[in-house]
Amino acid sequence: MDKDLIPQATSPLATWLCYLENLHSTTIDMGLERISNVALKLDVLKPAPTVFTVAGTNGKGTTCRTLETALMADGYRVGVYSSPHLVRYTERVRIQGKELPEALHTASFAEIEAARGDISLTYFEYGTLSALLLFKQQAVDVVILEVGLGGRLDATNIVDSDVAVVTSIALDHTDWLGPDRESIGREKAGVFRRDNPAVVGEPDMPQTIADVAQEKGAQLLRRGADWDYEVSATSWTFRDASGELKDLPLPLVPQPNAATALAALRASKLNVSENAIRYGIEHATLPGRFQVVSQAPRVILDVAHNPHAAAYLAGRLAALPERGRVLAVIGMLHDKDIAGTLACLSPQVDNWYCAPLEGPRGASAEQLIAHLGEGRTFATVADAWHAAMASATAEDTVLDEFAAIPLVPKPGDSDEPDMLPAATQALPAQPPEGAAEEVRAGAAVPPGLNSGAIPNEGSAGVDEVPVAHEQPKPQPVQEKPKPKPVEKPQPKPAADNQTEQPTKTEKPADKAPTGQAYVVQLGALKNADKVNEIVGKLRGAGFKVYTSPTTPVQGKITRILVGPDASKDKLKSSLGELNSLSGLNGVVMNYSPR
């Protein structure tokens, strides 16, 4: 390639991504030889003292997030590599729960470009090397790698993990991984390593996983045999060879994934306190996984894209209290199991609003209707969304179910991007488990949407990621410590951001303030005591806080809001402190009195 066409370290990220898309002849090129050669030159095969690698058909993202949240709460400096992104490429690499500035990504791309010589790399391989390089440069204690496609031949598998995880096994990507669960299980078990723990969260584990574990000499830890859990109405209990953890808080992520993350933490050699484990379980969340973004009508965003994930989603819908009708705005990729996915959801959906996804892999609205037999078709996602919202009553549930998350504003809403929740229409060509076609720079979005609307989970801004480690690194230990007294921990941020936690105060029964201004929506919790605790902390720190509804009800979703304030910039600047005090990730929204 003409050297004049190669981006520089200071080139915009969008320029680099366009370059990477066209660098290799195919988007998927299974095999590790090429990327391993470049990784050796960069010296990134050991990016951190401890590495978790997480594979599986579904559940990888929330398992990674639970690991991340617990480890951060215990003081570890954590790096996470995940895919695909919903909107921004920078979502793929997090350090201490924050995205990195684009300049760090482009600088790493330039270093990889100089090291690779004439070795061709795919988009995903380039991104994987970049993540490993950034983790090493940022001196993290723990790296969590989410596998892109399969496991054995995935780019992330160049790294020898200390703990390998397989969350679940279901039929997906059969063109690449094989026609049945046994074949797929063998591919995913390729992340196992000799003498290291191999945690399997799939209760109906294919025999091939056990076969690979034996061949590799890995320490297989199976759900239902080596570890398990029991759930009650208000808590759950985890059991493994080390003993029991009782009265654990119910997670916001799927229960099996929280339990799998806990099994992986306890299998590791890290000294993770029980306090931190409980905190991680209670606070881990991930956009697009049964994400409730508004009420009256209730709007839920979910990225379920295969029958296994759709069956779980259907169960969550069935358990909703007072849900009214369920109106589903849906779009899918034509190479997914459309019939199987829709069959799982159909018993829980009253009305379908079908829309096409752009790009060569997008299924048409007519293809979706052919499997449903009834429903309405629309030319665009925006049209489908507006029709569903116009039909919905306050008691209804509107489900946005896509391979990627779209969201378009209601007619008459402000076009201010900060009012939008963590969603957008980054729809064209979602890659299989993050390894194939990527969400391209400049992908079309509906009118009124801005890709910058996606809040950085756990971050007050990407520029605030610390470059140096400001705490002594916790060292891996061989023996488990005695459980510490159970107190709710707060995440341990860098030393310069630490604040003294105010004493808990009782929440006055204030009414929501009125007036046109801005607010920070911090989160939506079902734990009324936790809501009151957070509100007390924030008020003790001088913030104006109210909740919706005004009086939290146990088991019912309560939103926590800060403001209103006439200055959007003032609220944006407070996001970091709000996160430190509450553990929740806020987004600035327009406020209008009802």
TrEMBL record:
Give the GO terms filed under biological process for this record: folic acid biosynthetic process
Keyword list, A-Z: ATP-binding, Folate biosynthesis, Ligase, Magnesium, Metal-binding, Nucleotide-binding
Molecular functions per Gene Ontology:
ATP binding; dihydrofolate synthase activity; metal ion binding; peptidoglycan binding; tetrahydrofolylpolyglutamate synthase activity
Name this protein carries in UniProt? Bifunctional protein folC
As for family, the record states:
Belongs to the folylpolyglutamate synthase family.
Outline the extent of the SPOR domain. 512-591
Give me the Gene Ontology terms describing cellular component.
cytoplasm
Q: Which domain of life is it from?
A: Eukaryota
Keyword Nucleotide-binding annotated: yes
Q: Where are the stretches annotated Disordered? A: 469-515
**Cofactor(s) it depends on:** Mg(2+)
- Describe the subunit structure: Monomer.
**PROSITE patterns in the cross-refs:** FOLYLPOLYGLU_SYNT_2, SPOR
Q: Where is the composition biased (Basic and acidic residues)?
A: 479-490
The answer to whether keyword Amino-acid biosynthesis applies is no
